[in-house]
Amino acid sequence: MRSNPFIASAALCLASLPALAQDAPTLTVNPTPFEYRAEPPPASSQAPASSVADFAAADTRWWSVGTGVAFDFEDGTSFNLHASLSYFVADNIEAVGEVGAWYYSQPGEDAFGVNPAFVLRWHFINKGSWTAFADIGIGMLLASSDVPADNGTSFNLTPRVGVGLTYALDDAGTRLQLGLRWAHVSNARITGHDDNFGVDAAMPYVGLIFPF
Q: Is residue 54 assigned to a domain?
């Protein structure tokens, strides 16, 4: 009988299938399940380290710079530059370490002075964007000559009492500070009564506060 070419070709293909199966690559499936990982938000959308609401909160730190002028309403005018670091020991209660530089324009010899001081400040009104405060402090004055020049000394104590305001300037925590304080200079009679001529002055001042 004459063979059919189509049937012969089909038989040849079927005979070659086992060899093709042996040469085919092995396919494997990774059994590890799909894991979803949340990506952090972009840095620009994260809240700043300090904000308007953070000011005067317990356990926050701030630094400031400022200047002021003290008037004794007689013959002397004093000029001040100061820098400070502060820490809120509780909400609205601020402990401040300050260093001031002074120039005393006074009858007789003028004087330059350095004035480290400690201040305790209470922000008795806190509206977030602004606060009102009262403070009290004490420091030491080391001057280049006697203050006052007439019967004063070059070492003095500097008690102070004052009131003021702070106002938020931006969302990062920068604030304007305005204040008025009584600034006293005397040596507490450490060299005798005759060398205890003190100075009392009213000192308006302005400063900028920054988060630390």
A: no
